[in-house]
């Protein structure tokens, strides 16, 4: 899931290298921002959720199931094409969802969404819906993982290896506001159909989508072929505010205040449907359990009801399965203060907002050079795609 953050980071470095973007000045003086006391009655009791993509049964011991059931942990279960197609040789997904149903654990099916037309995502959602009905399984809904396309990820890999041509392509190849509008319309149609059929449809996306919206543009999402918002009608939006990824790219000074900042943006643009997911368990700053416990408590304090952590496998491998007790308890234990973003956190947000603005400014020139006809980047919220919101 962290490949989206990697792609944005490479894009930012590429833009700096090409002279498109200048590094932003710090948005505030250096130093830690003091926490703010939580208002009386603010926050409340949340529920721990975990992303899981383990296709082997080794992790699913009776002891693990007992721990999950005792804490009523919600599962976001990744399924692939071969897991739910008729005649699939491996029944692991059916077995896992079936056991979760038996234990009355909430289940959401997690699937990919990395296509630009919506056709593949629509086919996946249809096939999953059929599989659930056929095997008499229950899921609260489906969460679509809005990654960049395979072609974009290939460019990212080459750019990371120092391929300057790939670096330049990241800023030029994908930019196509008209195609972005078609992708938004396809997602909106998919959501509407799912709702007509009584199916909840969520999405999980890179947190920089929120920097895009804060900057009043959809340009950053466009250049990554990973437009997740709009539409604004997903039942829930889980933005991947993974401090481990940000710390790896911006340094260890990134604090829990960054989570607060992204949460506030999510709620500003999406209301109660704007949520975060945290992680990655086992990677700094989450090499020990305490920082992850703190950030779960922070989201509970902010008011998030379902708090997904990436991932179950890494939680068990790093801290042991008994740690699930502490993580689940954290979702019921709001803090007395709310961490505020400090200078390092504000620098992260400013970097991506500026990048979004610069890519938007680059869009007419890029599309004119490539297609002979200039296009303006889609603004937000007053965009030519406004009818699709």
Name its key features.
389 residues; TIM Barrel; two-stranded antiparallel sheet; 16 helices
Brief account:
The chain has 389 residues and is α/β, with parallel strands linked by helices. It has 16 helices and ten strands. Helix 1 (3-18) packs across helix 6 and helix 6 packs antiparallel against helix 7.
User: How many β-strand runs?
Assistant: 10
Number of domains: 1
The ordered H/E elements are: HEEHEHHEHEHHHEHHEHHEHEHHEH
Classify the secondary structure makeup into a structural class. alpha/beta
Largest sheet: 8 strands, parallel, barrel
Mean pLDDT over the residues? 87
What is the percentage of strand-forming residues?
A: 5-15%
Task: Specify the CATH homologous superfamily.
Answer: Glycosidases
Low confidence ranges: none
- What is the molecular shape? globular
How are the strands ordered across the major sheet? 2-3-4-5-6-7-8-9
For the record, the CATH architecture stands as: Alpha-Beta Barrel
Could you please say which CATH topology applies here? TIM Barrel
Distance between the termini: 25 Å
Give the C-level CATH assignment: Alpha Beta
DSSP helix fraction: 40-55%
How many helix segments? Answer: 16
C-alpha Rg, in Å? Answer: 21 Å
């Amino acid at each position: 899931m962290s490949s989206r953050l990697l792609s944005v980071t490479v894009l930012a470095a590429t833009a700096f290298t090409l002279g498109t973007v200048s590094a932003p000045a710090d948005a505030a003086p250096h130093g830690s921002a003091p926490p703010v006391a939580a208002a009386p009655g603010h926050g409340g009791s949340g529920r721990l959720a975990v992303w899981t993509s383990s296709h082997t049964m080794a992790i699913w011991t009776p002891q693990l199931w007992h721990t999950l059931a005792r804490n009523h942990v919600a599962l976001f279960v990744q399924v692939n094409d071969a897991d739910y197609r008729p005649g699939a040789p491996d029944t692991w997904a059916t077995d896992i969802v079936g056991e979760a149903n038996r234990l009355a654990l909430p289940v959401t099916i997690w699937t990919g969404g990395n296509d630009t037309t919506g056709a593949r995502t629509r086919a996946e959602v249809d096939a999953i819906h059929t599989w659930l009905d056929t095997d008499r399984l229950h899921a609260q809904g489906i969460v679509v993982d809005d990654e960049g396309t395979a072609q974009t990820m290939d460019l990212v890999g080459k750019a990371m290896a120092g391929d300057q041509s790939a670096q330049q392509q990241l800023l030029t190849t994908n930019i196509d506001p008209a195609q972005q509008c078609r992708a938004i319309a396809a997602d909106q149609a998919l959501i509407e159909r799912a709702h007509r059929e009584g199916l909840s449809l969520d999405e999980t996306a890179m947190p920089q989508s929120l920097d895009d919206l804060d900057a009043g543009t959809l340009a950053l999402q466009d250049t990554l072929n990973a437009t997740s918002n709009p539409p604004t009608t997903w039942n829930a939006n889980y933005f991947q505010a993974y401090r481990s990824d940000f710390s790896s790219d911006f340094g260890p000074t990134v604090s829990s205040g960054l989570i607060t900042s992204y949460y506030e943006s999510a709620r500003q643009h999406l209301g109660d449907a704007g949520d975060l997911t945290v992680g990655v368990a086992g990677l700094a700053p989450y090499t020990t359990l305490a920082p992850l416990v703190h950030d779960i408590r922070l989201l509970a304090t902010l008011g998030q009801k379902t708090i997904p952590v990436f991932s179950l496998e890494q939680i068990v491998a790093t801290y042991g399965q008994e740690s699930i007790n502490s993580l689940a308890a954290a979702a019921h234990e709001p803090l007395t203060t709310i961490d505020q973003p400090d200078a390092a956190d504000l620098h992260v947000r400013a970097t991506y907002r500026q990048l979004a603005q610069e890519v938007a400014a680059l869009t007419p020139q890029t599309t004119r050079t490539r297609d002979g006809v200039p296009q303006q980047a889609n603004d937000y919220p007053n965009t030519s795609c406004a009818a699709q919101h």
